[in-house]
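Schema walk-through. Below, the input block comes first and the output block second. Nothing else is stored per chain. Lengths vary across the set, and this one has 134 residues.
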Amino acid sequence: MEPFTLKILEAAAHRLDVTGEVSVLYVDDKEIHELNRTYRDVDRPTDVLSFAMTEGEDDFPNFDAPTMLGDIVISVDKAREQAAEYNHSLEREMAFLLVHGFLHLNGYDHQDDAGEREMFGLQDEILGTLGITR
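--- output ---
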């Protein structure tokens, strides 16, 4: 895994006190649009998608292997666009999207005000520990 990506995900994992494997895929808007349409029935590109592997019941025995937390897919096109829109660096936007995706893999969501406050507070805290601010 690329050093930047690893650094961000390790900080998030440390904060949540979780261990496991994460797959990260950087794509363009066309590819994430197709994934968004296929898996979420949303016909437009998005910035980040998370596919958690730890939801629901597990029918497999507990092997001595790292837990596969899931996959994070990030649109680099959308990240560039949002970095310009929010007037911050591409590095900051990519870090935000990695942390955001990682939190989703670990059960956090922003479907209501309380969940949004908790999730975005954690994002800011994790990014802050890395010196990545708005």
